[in-house]
Design a protein that fits this description.
Spore Coat Polysaccharide Biosynthesis Protein SpsA, Chain A; globular; transferase activity; transferase; 2 domains; 11 helices; alpha/beta; Glycosyltransf_2; about 45% helix; single chain; ten-stranded mixed β-sheet; about 20% strand
Amino acid sequence: MVSVVITTYKRPPEAVEKAVQSVLDQTYQDLEILIVDDNKNNSEESKLIAEAFSGRDRIKYIKQDGNKGACAARNLGITNAQGEYVAFLDDDDTWEPEKLEMQLARFKDADENVAMVYCLGDVVDISTEPPTVSEYYTTRLYKDEITFHDQLKYDYIGSTSQGLMRKSALVKLGGFDESLPARQDYEMWLRISKNYRIYGVKKVLFHYIQHGMEQITKSPKKAWTGYKIVYKKYYEDYRKDPDAHIGMLQRIIETVKEYNYFLYQYYRIKKHIIKRFVK
């Protein structure tokens, strides 16, 4: 069985329904859906989600105590999952019907040390008419197997909506790091790749939906803070791997530069890279 965890926050039921329907339409049908409500207790958003998804066949509605964030909500989903495998789907993303079937096929002949199978995705901008489709940022980086060195240097995977994981591995690794305001998916992939093997499916099987509603990935402060925490957490690994170290520092610089948020930090880190790596 596959347990599909959909965490939701400030999202109207009709938007979440699209994500849910893409799961119900899977060609692999031995699954359950766990809707983890991360809205504030007794809020209008929470009431609407509860009304829309409580008591439905194959769907389990779970109310998190207050608004604790996506990581805590995903961990609550893992705790309540009944399946051998766990997949996550953001409440505004969708899957292709064969996603789970194709990922499970890669698990079929793999040894127990393969803890995750990811897939490719695309970006669908629904703010335009008609919606426009573009390539997801990790598509051209596809690797049939991703190593810890690969992930240290760059995030070859991307969104939590792309992976299918063994529940036993997620439990053993302690779930998602709840101290992270962003980049929690990247940190989870680092931990998995450090302790297990990750395989891929070279096909677009998930759709990242762009719209005008709130998205964590659009918060510059959260992105910057998330990268800082990840960098500190894996500093010794980066220090032993100069190539990956430079890659991570370059990503931090680009994050600051892209959002134009912490200009002082941008020039300070740039000076550090030049001083440390350029002779």
